């Protein structure tokens, strides 16, 4: 098996992975950097983020205000030392992107423009029309092209971390073009593998978001933290699940039920604000968890609109006018026309909440370090505990910059004074990894199909682990996922070619998703309270006495994960009431 | 509830596995689809219910990641943006033209990535500025000068449509030149001279015969043909300045 020897291996080449790679290359041109990704960098799902990236820049704003919005938005499950660090770094990182050429929208005087976003008390969301993630991703990718020390391994699927002597020292990956497995020996490894929304059938997430990065770390013994917190974005296209950015509401769009009522006023987010005059942090600018949950209540009351794609509510932006929509929301207009046949300039568009983002992930600290020495993680795959129980829109694009850079700095720090690797031990680990894939590849004894198991997983997640949960459904989900993990070992491949075999990669991705789904459902069952995005019909109150703690799920092979808890870091904001009414102070 | 209209769709898909096929061949599938679906949905239905060995790239399903470019009835398309309602009869799906086939509908993209790198598609700042000094000022009008060219999703449809690239593979091609032009037009950038060495050459803009096929197929209205034309005009002005003005003004 070929060995690639490098200083730092990065798994995933979306926003976080690319930001880390640039930070490494800038810090020391002699560092060898291997950037490994199952897709070309510009295909990474960062490209689909629309609305923008939050960072304090205007005179009436402050770090404290961004801190308060983030901690309250996260229902006090955020680690406050992390949030303090984040809000200070955010504007620096966004300015850095500007220096690299990101085409941010501008004010008339040439300074960077900001827009309102949900749950934010001030306007602080930097944006590039409604293609902010796309521009961030391409700016970062194009910037990497000037650094010869960043060696890309495009379309390599990462298989297993190489752990020896209590340290992470590399990874195995399959070159998708040839089917060849290579071992990467690296002194530091950064995982930036993105989220896992594809566990659910209705998701804004691209096909690639299958939790591979999370599963890599989890299987190597690193806990997955707060996996039960899954964000539903309130406004997805009802047929494809495509995202219609929160900026639709930030710019003044309103949500209506079948009676034409702006129903958010009935869920603690009123009183109604005048049309075309959105007010920060209330009504349509409430946080995502509350706005999505209000849809569920409208559904129970029979107030939703029946469409061929299921029960919907209406997002109305007609009053914004064609010119403003084309300047601020061109992609949303294009998506509505193309996929649903609705022009938002002329008609209200049906939408419903859709799985969007994993607050949970690989447990990391503010330095982006995991519990396993030599292993770092950043971006959606990580849970650095910035977002707590509910992420505020426009914090995640900044998160991947701030902590992508942190991961790089920590990875460099880790390089110092390391003992020489035990090459034979690493090769032995790599051989085990290869044997695991070979067994799957050569298996003939089995009767399960990948697409069958994947559908059963998605169905059980949607039915039992969605917007509202309860014990009976979660128990069913835990049992079902455990059963599917057993049956997974009986999948037989149809395709035995070595060349770009997506039958094989889809089976491997399903394995990652099942691992994530198990951590998610087990953590959700044990959290007997309602907080942020985790809402229990049988435990409707937040319970700070018992659950002001992070869930930590540890992998136990074929058995259910072991759960442990970690205290939330509180520095200056004791748990309080989340008030998104118009009268909030 | 009104029901979504169903339709049986016939696909004719190019298949090729270098491990067992001496040359590519077509395979026919008939699959039930929703009338509102796109070609990519039909391919996914085939892969899930009929033939798991069919291979193609895709991810976002919203025409922004640029993964799923294919020839649909002979035209370069993002298959997630090629609506079944636009097609009658058998739909022929092939890998993007002008690129080597890796497997089935998957092409080898190395050449495009190499060319993209050569044009230095990153900001080469006119002046240095520290983060503490804040952002470079750029007016909305200055932004509009290059914004269109920054919309390229690297889907490579323009290379599949380009008759010059088909004849002369050394041609740097529409998307890469449009991105070079994007940075040349950016008020913050000072790297034009470096990029001109690559794009104002016979492998660059002078290879283009301005057929305009690239702009016609671009799913993001980037208008690479317009960018190429602007580069040609600017390069001609450079030439006159250097050769006809006293002292070769810069």
Task: Outline the structure in words.
- The complex is a heterodimer of chains A (585) and B (250).
- Chain A has 585 residues and is α/β, with parallel strands linked by helices.
- Chain A folds into three domains: 285 residues, 3-Layer(bba) Sandwich (FAD/NAD(P)-binding domain), CATH 3.50.50; 121 residues, Succinate dehydrogenase/fumarate reductase flavoprotein, catalytic domain (Flavocytochrome C3, Chain A, domain 1); 142 residues, Fumarate reductase/succinate dehydrogenase flavoprotein-like, C-terminal domain (Methane Monooxygenase Hydroxylase, Chain G, domain 1, Up-down Bundle).
- Chain A contains 15 helices and 22 strands.
- In chain A, the strands form five sheets. In chain A, strands 1, 2, 6, 7, 8, 9 and 17 form a seven-stranded mixed β-sheet that branches.
- In chain A, strand 8 and strand 9 form a beta hairpin.
- In chain A, helix 2 crosses helix 3.
- The radius of gyration of chain A is 23 Å and the shape is globular.
- Chain B has 250 residues and is an alpha+beta fold.
- Chain B folds into two domains: 102 residues, Beta-grasp domain (Ubiquitin-like (UB roll), Roll); 135 residues, Alpha-helical ferredoxin (Fumarate Reductase Iron-sulfur Protein, Chain B, domain 2).
- Chain B is 33% helix and 15% strand.
- Chain B is built from nine helices and seven strands.
- In chain B, the strands form two sheets. In chain B, strands 2-1-5-3-4 form a five-stranded mixed β-sheet. A two-stranded antiparallel ribbon of chain B has the order 6-7.
- In chain B, helix 2 packs parallel to helix 6 and helix 6 crosses helix 9.
- At the A-B interface, helix 3, helix 4 and helix 9 of A face helix 1, helix 2 and helix 3 of B.
């Amino acid at each position: 098996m070929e060995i690639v020897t490098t200083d730092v291996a990065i798994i995933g080449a979306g926003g976080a992975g690319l930001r880390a790679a640039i930070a490494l290359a800038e810090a020391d041109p002699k560092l060898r950097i291997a950037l490994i990704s199952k897709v070309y960098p510009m295909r990474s799902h960062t490209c689909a983020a629309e609305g923008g990236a939050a960072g304090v820049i205007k005179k009436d704003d402050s770090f404290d205000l961004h801190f308060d919005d983030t901690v309250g938005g996260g229902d006090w499950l955020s680690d406050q030392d992390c949030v303090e660090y984040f809000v200070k770094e955010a504007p620096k990182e966004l300015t850095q992107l500007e220096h690299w050429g990101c085409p941010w929208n501008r004010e008339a005087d040439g300074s960077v423009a900001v827009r309102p976003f949900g749950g934010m008390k001030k306007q602080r969301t930097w944006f590039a029309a409604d293609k902010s993630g796309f521009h961030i991703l391409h700016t970062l990718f194009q910037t990497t092209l000037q650094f010869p020390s960043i060696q890309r391994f495009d379309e390599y699927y990462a298989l297993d971390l190489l752990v020896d002597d209590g340290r992470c020292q590399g990874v195995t990956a399959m070159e998708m073009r040839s089917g060849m497995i290579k071992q990467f020996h690296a002194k530091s490894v950064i995982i930036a593998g993105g989220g896992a929304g594809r566990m659910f059938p209705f998701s804004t997430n691209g096909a690639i978001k299958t939790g591979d990065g999370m599963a890599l770390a989890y299987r190597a013994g690193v806990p997955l933290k707060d996996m039960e917190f899954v964000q539903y974005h309130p406004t997805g296209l009802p047929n494809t699940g495509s995202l219609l950015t929160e900026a639709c509401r930030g710019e003044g769009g309103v949500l209506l039920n079948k009676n034409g009522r702006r129903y958010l006023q009935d869920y603690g987010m009123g009183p109604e604000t005048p049309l075309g005059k959105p007010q920060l942090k209330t009504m349509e600018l409430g946080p995502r968890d509350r706005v999505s949950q209000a849809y569920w209540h409208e559904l129970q009351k029979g107030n939703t609109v029946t469409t061929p794609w299921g029960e919907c509510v209406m997002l109305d932006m007609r009053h914004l006018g064609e010119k403003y929509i084309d300047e601020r929301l061109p992609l949303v207009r294009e998506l509505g026309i193309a996929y649903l046949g609705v022009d938002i300039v002329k008609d209200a568009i049906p939408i419903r909440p859709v799985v969007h983002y994993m607050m949970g992930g690989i447990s990391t600290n503010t330095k982006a370090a995991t519990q396993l020495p030599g292993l770092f993680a950043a971006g959606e795959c990580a849970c650095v505990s910035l977002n707590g129980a509910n992420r505020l829109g426009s914090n995640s694009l900044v998160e991947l910059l701030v902590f992508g850079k942190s991961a790089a700095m920590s990875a460099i720090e880790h390089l110092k004074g390391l003992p020489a690797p035990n090459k034979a031990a690493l090769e032995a680990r790599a051989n085990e990894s290869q044997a695991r894939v070979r067994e799957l590849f050569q298996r003939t004894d089995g009767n399960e199909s990948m697409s069958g198991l994947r559908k059963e997983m998605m169905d059980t997640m949607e039915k039992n682990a969605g917007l509202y949960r309860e014990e009976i459904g979660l128990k069913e989900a835990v049992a079902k996922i455990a059963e599917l993990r057993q049956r997974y070992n009986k999948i037989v491949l149809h395709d035995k070619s070595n060349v770009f075999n997506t039958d094989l990669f889809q089976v491997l991705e399903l394995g990652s998703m099942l691992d994530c789904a198990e951590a998610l459902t087990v953590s959700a069952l044990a959290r007997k309270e309602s907080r942020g995005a985790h809402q229990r019909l049988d435990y409707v109150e937040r319970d700070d006495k018992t659950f002001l703690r992070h869930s930590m799920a540890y992998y136990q092979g074929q058995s259910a994960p072991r759960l442990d808890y970690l205290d939330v870091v509180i520095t200056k904001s004791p748990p309080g009431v989340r008030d998104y009414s118009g009268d909030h102070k | 509830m009104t029901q979504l209209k169903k339709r049986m769709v016939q696909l004719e898909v190019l298949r090729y596995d270098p491990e067992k096929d001496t040359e590519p061949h077509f395979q026919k599938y008939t699959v039930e689809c929703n009338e509102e679906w796109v070609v990519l949905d039909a391919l996914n239905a085939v892969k899930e219910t009929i033939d798991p060995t069919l291979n193609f790239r895709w991810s976002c399903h919203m025409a922004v990641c640029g993964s799923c470019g294919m020839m649909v009835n002979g035209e370069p398309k993002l298959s997630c943006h090629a609506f079944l309602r636009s097609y009658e009869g058998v739909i022929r799906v092939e890998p993007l033209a002008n690129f080597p086939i890796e497997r089935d509908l998957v092409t080898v993209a190395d050449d495009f990535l190499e060319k993209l790198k050569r044009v230095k598609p990153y900001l080469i700042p006119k002046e240095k500025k520290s983060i503490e000094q804040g952002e470079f000022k750029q007016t909305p009008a200055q932004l509009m000068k290059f914004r269109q060219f920054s919309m390229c999703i690297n889907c490579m449809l323009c290379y599949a449509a380009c008759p010059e690239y088909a004849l002369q593979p050394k041609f740097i091609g529409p998307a890469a030149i449009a991105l070079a032009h994007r940075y040349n037009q950016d008020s913050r950038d000072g790297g034009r001279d470096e990029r001109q060495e690559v794009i104002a050459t016979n492998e660059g803009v002078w290879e283009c015969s301005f057929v305009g096929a690239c702009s016609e197929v671009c799913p993001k209205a980037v208008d690479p043909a317009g960018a190429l034309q602007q580069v040609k005009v600017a390069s001609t002005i450079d030439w006159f300045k250097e050769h006809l003005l006293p002292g070769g003004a810069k």
